[in-house]
């Protein structure tokens, strides 16, 4: 970021000196004084005279504030949400956890689970009813832009040509917990289904809830522990990426079959979803590729590409929401078809680097205001249910991934690490749970229990790996991470990937710290693919605009 | 953006090949099949069996949508606002106007002035009551972040050491229209003051309304016509920068004296404002400079600096709003004290490049929904008032600037150009007018008339300059602007300054297109100062962190 700045001042200084004085015939001193009096003195005197005549006393008027206005309340709440999320993230890093977990916990702390218990009045004063829709607007925009980014990251992962063992482990780490969740659904439906939780929708939802692995959070953990380039690291990332795609598809099906709709409406949703998906993945992709703003060859078309990204994500999200799915499905699909080439990827990197830290914390607040630890009810029944789901979630993920890996020839130690890693549910699971709750598929009690399961399984990943003594087996050379401060990330990664794709950050970092990497997404994709595939796909650099 | 990307793939490919196959003992074909059946076949069969048993029929539920939900409505409206603003901006550029004028007109077109006349139902369907607070949240955030940027840009302008003629012209171009507005206020107060428009507040407001020159819009026009480096170009930019600072101060006073408050409350506001301003400009600046996230020496602390920027702007805005001024004053002040050094300026450039095009259009919508052309009432009285204010606005600005310039030795032709240029009121004036209307200082009728005056005086600047045959007298070498497409901007400028500071863009551009310029704000400041001062201030590069 520093090396290429030639000094631009020398040239312009000369120019300015050359043309500045030559144009003006400098006025005499007397002229200056008289002009000053005429153009400054007289007008100021007039203004002063008017003010004196009118007097500055307050005439009775109808305006006037009372307490804090809505705008001030909104701005105050917004600042608080951002600072709390940031502080939570920093604290999490200190505790050896991925920052997003701290941000989620900060959201919970501002809601009825902590602040609402300590001081309900403070909570209501900070987030009054008029301000909530305003905060929700930022949350919705933050969520769809985050889902766009998830889709975009997943689109960068090529599944073709991967080793058999990679594919099998990915399938197993998803299918075993998914099937278990579905099989257990009839037993839990009575006490856990929400008002719209038809048996099929509830079963699918529970399957998804147990089988999700959070790609971004996992990547962050791998990076912090220096495990990104190890075999279990690469396998778990591959499994998370593949699994996420399937999970969103299954969630879409669950939402479509959620209750309260006639069979005709259900058919319409299914038809509409398939038609829209096909349209977007077929024609939509080609249209985007043809747009001048996303094609180059200029060095980024700036605002146009950013506007297209946000507006396109919003439209796509609105369409799937209108179809009866959820806004996030449309945003995810739009991310999938976003062109990987130069100007488009740059615009997405830049936009994400700002919207991720500025908007997503509002989603955590929305989540925190929704989540009430007390809703689960304290007692043996809740404890038992939590324990049961915890065991189910952990054991099926672990068995599916670790056993399958061991059977396909992965060393025992690496298989264990893999089994621990795929239990990272993190942010993805939170989004899945919130979506299921909003759609009425799951009730507040089971929602609360599942959130607890999510937090525990995610929080235990890093300590478990450390306890198991799984040190980096092939640390990246020149890595100067400071997990204690979280400030070791390269400008490249921080700029381009924000915190949503930290594995990518550190891949970028190997290219030399301090080097701006706005254009690096394509390169990072290549690097990511090597991590997954072990070799470089030919001609990959040509699939974008360049 | 391209030159420094060494190929990172060669190395990692070798590494991956080296450690990938060696770790895994490849399983036999039979083992593969049986593992596949166990981990993929069986779970899928279980899931299918559960689904079949449960059936996919819709149990009666309580959820269910009806029409478009609030989220879909919000996302749809958001996309429409962004695309309309973008299209308006493109159209304006085609017509030889600054893009922001097109964005403002797009906002008006979506409101009661056009869409509301053509099809009130469509307008109400697009922007229903539940969605308006959500859109307003984006608008408020967009406005305060824009005002932050205005403050930051103005802080870069050093007034010390400027030539006498520059200072005198700046004062004259502000003071003459200001005094005229104040003098005319008693005549217009009867028909134009709002419910909170005390005589003093109304007079100050009218003075500000007549005397504003829009720094960003002016800069854009100068750039498009290639006049940035000419004498009238530099003089008008200097006058706009100085005038803007005074205008926000005067507006703050007007807001403080607006009606509906007891003298005690008024005194409290005044005291609070002075105390807060002093605190921010004194201790606040030093605190910000000391924060690790804004200090470097790392290449940008990424999310932390961005969060600090947004949260700090929001807090500062909330404080001034709570004090009885307006949120934008606090945001402006926070922009004034934002450190000019490396990581802080980078973060601000990056944040602005995304928030400017993504959030500010919602302010234009808010404005458009507020502004009703019909509110002025069609008729001779309105036409007469509009004509009177137009003549007043144009003649006082023109006379103040042009005559003063001529008398201080500026050539006649340049003086005329200067007089035309300072009539650019643009976005700054729109913000001033909206603020006065919200505070109840001005009523709907006069507000509408003043908006019309603003639009006319801004729109006529570029054509007038062209008609007067004022060609660039000292075009910047190597400038390849394409005013017809608006895509001639450098990545540097587009990235760093967005559209808010286009003059800065092109200054950056001279350093070579395609070069990333995230760090260039300091250099651009220097360059900007040369434009104003004619020579380089010594030691300027040292005032930040580096």
Characterization of the model:
- The structure is a homodimer of 546-residue chains.
- With 546 residues, the first copy, chain A, is an all-alpha fold.
- Helix content of chain A is 71%, strand content 0%.
- Chain A is built from 24 helices and no strands.
- The first copy, chain A, has helices spanning 9-23, 29-54, 70-94, 99-110, 115-118, 120-126, 132-155, 164-192, 199-211, 215-225, 231-256, 263-290, 292-295, 303-322, 327-337, 342-370, 380-407, 412-421, 426-438, 444-459, 461-467, 491-496, 502-509, 521-533.
- In chain A, helix 4 runs parallel beside helix 16, helix 10 packs antiparallel against helix 11 (231-256) and helix 12 packs parallel to helix 15 (327-337).
- Chain A is globular and about 95 Å long.
- The two termini of chain A are 23 Å apart.
- The relative contact order of chain A is 0.14.
- Chains A and B meet through helix 1, helix 2, helix 3, helix 7 and helix 8 of A and helix 1, helix 2, helix 3, helix 7 and helix 8 of B.
- Chains A, B: InterPro entries: Cation/H_exchanger_TM, CPA2_transporter, Na+/solute_symporter_sf.
- Chains A, B: The chain crosses the membrane at residues 32-56, 68-88, 100-119, 131-150, 162-188, 200-223, 235-258, 264-284, 305-338, 358-381, 388-409, 446-465.
């Amino acid at each position: 970021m520093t090396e290429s700045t030639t000094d631009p001042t020398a040239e312009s200084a000369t120019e300015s000196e050359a043309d500045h004085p030559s144009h003006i015939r400098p006025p005499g001193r007397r002229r200056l004084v008289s002009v000053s009096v005429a153009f400054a003195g007289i007008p100021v005197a007039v203004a002063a005279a008017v003010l004196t005549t009118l007097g500055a006393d307050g005439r009775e008027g109808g305006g006037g504030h009372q307490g804090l206005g809505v705008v001030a309340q909104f701005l105050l709440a917004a600042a608080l949400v951002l600072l709390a999320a940031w502080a939570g993230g920093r604290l999490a890093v200190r505790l050896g956890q991925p920052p997003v977990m701290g941000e989620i916990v900060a959201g919970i702390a501002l809601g009825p689970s902590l602040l609402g218990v300590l001081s309900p009045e403070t909570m209501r004063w900070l987030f009054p009813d008029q301000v909530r829709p305003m905060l929700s607007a930022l949350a919705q925009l933050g969520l769809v832009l985050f889902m766009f980014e998830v889709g975009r990251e997943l689109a960068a992962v090529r599944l073709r040509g991967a080793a058999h063992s990679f594919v099998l482990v990915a399938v197993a780490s998803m299918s075993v917990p998914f099937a278990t969740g579905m099989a257990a659904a009839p037993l839990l439906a009575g006490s856990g289904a929400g008002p719209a939780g038809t048996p099929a929708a509830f079963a699918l939802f529970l399957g998804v809830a147990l089988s999700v692995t959070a790609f971004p959070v996992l990547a962050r953990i791998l990076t912090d522990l220096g495990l990104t380039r190890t075999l279990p690291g690469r396998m778990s990332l591959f499994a998370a990426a593949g699994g996420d795609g399937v999970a969103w598809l299954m969630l879409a099906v669950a939402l479509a079959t959620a209750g309260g709709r006639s069979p005709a409406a259900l058919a319409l949703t299914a038809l509409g979803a398939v038609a829209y998906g096909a349209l977007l993945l077929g024609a939509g992709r080609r249209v985007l590729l043809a747009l001048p703003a996303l094609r180059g060859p200029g060095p980024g078309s700036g605002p146009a590409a950013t506007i297209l990204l946000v507006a396109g994500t919003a439209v796509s999200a609105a369409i799937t929401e209108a179809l009866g799915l959820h806004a996030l499905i449309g945003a995810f699909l739009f991310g999938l078809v976003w062109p990987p080439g130069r100007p488009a990827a740059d615009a997405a990197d830049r936009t994400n680097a700002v919207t991720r830290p500025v908007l997503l914390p509002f989603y955590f607040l929305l989540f925190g205001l929704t989540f009430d630890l007390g809703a689960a009810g304290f007692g043996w029944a809740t404890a038992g249910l939590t324990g049961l789901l915890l065991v189910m979630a952990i054991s099926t993920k672990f068995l599916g991934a670790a056993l399958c890996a061991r059977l396909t020839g992965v060393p025992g130690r690496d298989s264990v690490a893999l089994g621990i890693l795929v239990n990272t549910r993190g942010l993805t699971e939170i989004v899945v749970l919130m979506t299921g709750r909003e759609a009425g598929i799951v009730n507040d009690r089971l929602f609360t229990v599942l959130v607890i399961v999510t937090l525990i399984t995610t929080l235990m990943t890093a300590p478990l790996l450390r306890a198991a003594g799984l040190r980096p087996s092939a640390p990246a050379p020149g890595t100067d991470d400071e997990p204690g401060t979280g400030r070791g990330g390269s400008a490249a990664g921080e700029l381009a990937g924000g915190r949503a794709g930290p594995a990518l950050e550190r891949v970028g970092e190997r290219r030399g710290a301090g080097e701006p990497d706005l254009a690096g997404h394509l390169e990072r994709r290549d690097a990511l693919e090597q991590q997954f595939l072990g070799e470089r796909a030919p001609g990959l650099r040509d699939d974008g605009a360049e």
